[in-house]
Specification:
Layout (H helix, E strand, L loop, with lengths): L1 E5 L3 H13 L3 E5 L2 H8 L6 E4 L8 H10 L6 E5 L4 H9 L4 E4 L4 H15 L6 E4 L2 E4 L4 E4 L2 E3 L3 H12 L4 E2 L1 H8 L8 H14 L6 E5 L3 E5 L2
Parallel strand pairs: 1-2, 1-3, 3-4, 4-5
Antiparallel strand pairs: 6-7, 7-8, 8-9, 10-12, 11-12
Helix pairs in contact: 2-3, 6-8
Length: 221
C-alpha cells in the first residue's frame, strides 16, 4: 500500500513517514501543495495525509482539484486549523477524515488503516480466505492459524493480492504499491518477492499464477 504525506513541517513529515514505512507502507512526502497536486495527477495512492497550511497551494485547493478530477482516493486532513468552519469546509470538499495537531500517532495510524479498509471495500480488519488470514491492524499474516514471518515487502505484496483476489495485477501496478520515490525500483525484484511468497503459501488453497507479459493472478481453486 502506498501513502502520500503532504506536510511542510519536515520533522513531523519524517516522523510520519518512518512510522508508516515501519508498518509496511510505501510513503512519499511532499512539502509543497502545488508539487503534491502535480504528483496526484499522475500517481495513484491508497491514501493521502494532507496538511492545509502549505506553500505553493493550500491544502483545501489540493483537495478541491482532486475531487474535481473524480479522484476518490481517501484523504485524511491533518492540520492545526481546529475551527468548526475549517472542519466543515474540508469535509464538504470531500475529505474522509479530519484530525488536528497535536495528535497521537497511534490514533493517526488507526484512522489511516480504517480509511484504507473502507477504500478497499472491507469493513473488518482481518482478511480471511483459503487458509490465509491477514490482520491489517497488527500487520501480521497467518497460514492455517499459525503466524508466518513475512518481511515488509512480502507482507505488502500479500495484501495487494488479497485485495485483488481473482484479478490480474501488473508488475507496474505492484511496483507502484511496493516502492516509494526514494526506492530503486527493479521489476525483476518483484519476481523474487512473488517466488518467496508462493513458497510460504503452499499449505493454503491460494495460488499465484504468472500471466506472461501481463502480471500475476492470485486464485483460489
Amino acid at each position: 500500500m502506498r501513502i502520500l504525506v503532504v506536510e511542510d513541517d519536515y520533522a513531523l513529515a519524517d516522523g510520519i513517514r518512518h512510522a508508516f514505512k515501519h508498518e509496511g507502507f510505501a510513503v512519499d512526502v511532499f512539502a509543497d501543495g502545488a508539487e503534491a497536486e502535480a504528483v496526484l495527477m499522475t500517481q495513484d495512492y491508497d491514501l493521502v495525509i494532507l496538511d492545509l497550511n502549505l506553500p505553493g497551494m493550500d491544502g483545501l485547493e489540493v483537495l478541491r482539484e482532486m475531487r474535481s478530477r473524480k479522484n476518490e482516493t481517501p484523504v485524511l486532513i491533518l492540520t492545526v486549523r481546529d475551527r468548526v468552519d475549517d472542519r466543515v469546509a474540508g469535509l464538504d470538499l470531500g475529505a474522509d477524515d479530519y484530525m488536528t495537531k497535536p495528535f497521537d500517532l497511534c490514533e493517526l495510524e488507526a484512522r489511516v488503516r480504517a480509511l484504507i479498509r473502507r477504500g478497499a471495500g472491507s469493513a473488518t480488519p482481518v482478511i480471511e480466505v483459503g487458509g490465509v488470514a491477514f490482520d491489517t491492524v497488527g500487520r501480521r499474516a497467518y497460514v492455517r492459524g499459525k503466524p508466518i514471518d513475512l518481511p515488509r515487502r512480502e507482507l505488502c505484496l500479500l495484501e495487494i493480492f488479497l485485495s485483488h483476489l481473482g484479478k490480474l495485477v501488473s508488475k507496474e501496478r505492484i511496483a507502484e504499491k511496493l516502492f516509494d520515490f526514494d526506492d530503486d525500483v527493479e521489476l525483476t525484484a518483484i519476481e523474487l518477492y512473488v517466488h518467496r511468497l508462493r513458497k510460504k503459501l503452499e499449505p493454503t488453497e491460494l495460488s499465484i499464477r504468472t500471466i506472461r507479459g501481463l502480471g500475476y493472478l492470485m486464485e483460489r481453486p
